[in-house]
User: Fold this.
Amino acid sequence: MTGAERPAPVVEFVGVGLTYPGPPPVAALRPCDLVVGRGEYVTITGPSGSGKSTFLNVAGLLDRPTTGTYLLDGIDTGTLKERDRTALRGSRIGFVFQSFHLLPHRTATENVELATMYQGGRRSRAERAAGARESLTRVGLGHRLEHTPTTLSGGERQRVAIARALAADPSLLLCDEPTGNLDTATADDVLALLDALHADGMTILVITHDHAVAARGQRSVAIRDGVVSEGAPA
Assistant:
């Protein structure tokens, strides 16, 4: 692929690092360069304590790096005030977590719809509900719209969480151990859904310690002792 054909970056780290103040200071993420182009599926692997969570927090605009520049969709996030970072996070990043984080007594539609209330815009309640139903149908839950999480399987709950992440049509789907609470067969179903979303053009970053999950991506990036490098860790 020539330089002219490379997709525009969605995530671009330029010397990005994060050191927590001491004493003693802890270099949780050492300065690194990383580009994730539009439509790429990249996995981030490493053992516990390697810096994966720090990477997630920086990429998800939950923490500010102490060094370097992070551009999201070409926007220099380091120059933004906190409210603007929050707005950018809500409109450009969809999060999928290991533990689903669904409201147990709200329907699947309501869980997705409520999430869109914090993503800006002035859509009516009817428009939000229609968008939620569309997202749920996209992940194969069109027949479970009015079910609460307590009546759904683990795989279905994760699909609701993915639908919620997709509701704002984000530039980046950022997944943190998305199969960590699922059995093998259910995990395969969720990974197949991520494959399908990637085939549709979604940019996906998956944080995982599971090498089988990491193998699903186009590229694997390793983190060990805060050091980021291309390729799976030993």
Summary: The mean pLDDT is 91.
